[in-house]
Automatic annotation (TrEMBL):
<dbReference type="Pfam" id="PF01965">
    <property type="entry name" value="DJ-1_PfpI"/>
</dbReference>
<dbReference type="InterPro" id="IPR029062">
    <property type="entry name" value="Class_I_gatase-like"/>
</dbReference>
<keyword id="KW-0805">Transcription regulation</keyword>
<dbReference type="InterPro" id="IPR009057">
    <property type="entry name" value="Homeodomain-like_sf"/>
</dbReference>
<feature type="domain" description="HTH araC/xylS-type">
    <location>
        <begin position="209"/>
        <end position="307"/>
    </location>
</feature>
<keyword id="KW-0804">Transcription</keyword>
<dbReference type="Pfam" id="PF12833">
    <property type="entry name" value="HTH_18"/>
</dbReference>
<protein>
    <submittedName>
        <fullName>GlxA family transcriptional regulator</fullName>
    </submittedName>
</protein>
<dbReference type="InterPro" id="IPR052158">
    <property type="entry name" value="INH-QAR"/>
</dbReference>
<dbReference type="InterPro" id="IPR002818">
    <property type="entry name" value="DJ-1/PfpI"/>
</dbReference>
<dbReference type="InterPro" id="IPR018060">
    <property type="entry name" value="HTH_AraC"/>
</dbReference>
Length: 324
């Protein structure tokens, strides 16, 4: 089993602390999840109780993936305390490291994010940038996968990034099973922009949800902004504005994202050729599919298919062919 070690710090948020076990622990017994603190003693949560953990920092030496849940941001500092620094130093160099929400502050203070893209909760973006100007923070996304380091936004984004890893390790079927058990979507559209406070639309105003569903059923067609706005019964300008308010991205970008998601499903679960997959999801050519898939996840269609057609034992360890 792939060992996931969760490092609980003082001030930890109890809900997010449980996310790794809830997600990875539901994945067909493919992961072992253990929790530790920097000294093996109970940790104070951000609520009115302490949390006892089974392990001390020595288990970090055995980790293949380490998850750092969020903690009270009032404790955040540009430098790590000695116990935390010593604990992080035990993590194997080839282990993946994942942060949820304010856990990114810990990775940044450890220098793990210098010059790299990272995510954290949108409400903390300004403070994060002040403390860690050498990190390429993107406060609009739900999570960022930068290979050996993954960072995510607030609580629900912790579910997103863990489900993403299950999918990356073992494919869509297993990730979808886990999502159903957790009663959460296997993939969420958009980024954090949809959760940042905006003026509330008038109660009588139409939304774009029905049109999004309509478009998902017609991804194979060359849909235009005019098609979408016409279905919604709005002007082009009104539709584009309302769509961005609700989804956090433009209609065109959303369509490409949905086509890539559907293409990934077909590459994983069908024997269709790359040309056929491109046609099924609305990309004009196989070259267009290759370009958009590579932009989204850094691999070619054939490399992606090879990864997810690997044997179960290989699927958890094979790296995506980023040169494909």
């Amino acid at each position: 089993m792939h060992r996931v070690v969760v490092l609980a710090l003082d001030g930890v948020y109890p809900f997010e602390l449980g996310i790794p076990h809830r997600v990875f622990g539901t994945a067909r017994g493919l992961y072992e999840v253990v929790t530790c603190s920097v000294d093996g003693r109970p940790v104070r949560s951000d609520s009115d109780f302490e949390i006892a953990v089974e392990h001390g920092p020595e288990v970090l030496r055995t980790a293949e993936t380490v998850v750092i849940p969020p903690y009270d941001v009032g404790r955040a500092s540009p430098e790590l305390g000695e116990p935390v620094a010593e604990a992080l130093a035990l993590i194997p160099r080839d282990a993946r490291v994942v942060s949820i929400c304010t856990g990114a502050f810990v990775l940044a203070a450890a220098g793990r994010l210098d010059g790299r893209p990272a995510a954290t909760h949108w409400a903390l973006a300004a403070r994060f940038r002040r403390l860690f100007p050498y990190v390429d923070l993107d406060a609009d996304v739900l999570f960022i996968d930068d290979g050996d380091v993954l960072t995510s936004a607030g609580a629900a984004a912790g579910m997103d990034v863990c489900l993403h890893l299950v999918r990356k390790d073992h494919g869509a079927e297993v990730a979808n099973e886990v999502a159903r058990c957790c009663v959460v979507p296997p993939w969420r559209d958009g980024g954090q922009a949809q959760f940042i406070p905006h003026p509330v639309p008038e109660a009588t105003a139409a939304g774009t949800a029905a049109t999004r569903q309509w478009a998902l059923e017609r991804l194979h067609l060359p849909l235009t902004l005019a098609d979408l706005a016409g279905h919604a019964g709005m002007s082009l300008r009104t539709f584009a504005r309302r769509f961005r308010d609700e989804v956090g991205m433009s209609p065109g970008r959303w369509l490409i994202q949905q086509r890539v998601v559907r293409a990934r499903q077909l590459l994983e679960g069908s024997d269709l050729s790359v040309d056929q997959v491109a046609g099924k999801v609305g990309f004009a050519t196989a070259a267009s599919l290759r370009r958009h898939l590579h932009a989204a996840i850094g691999v070619s269609p054939l490399a992606y298919r090879r990864t997810f057609r690997a044997t179960e034992g290989e699927a958890g360890t094979r790296e995506l062919d980023r040169a494909g």
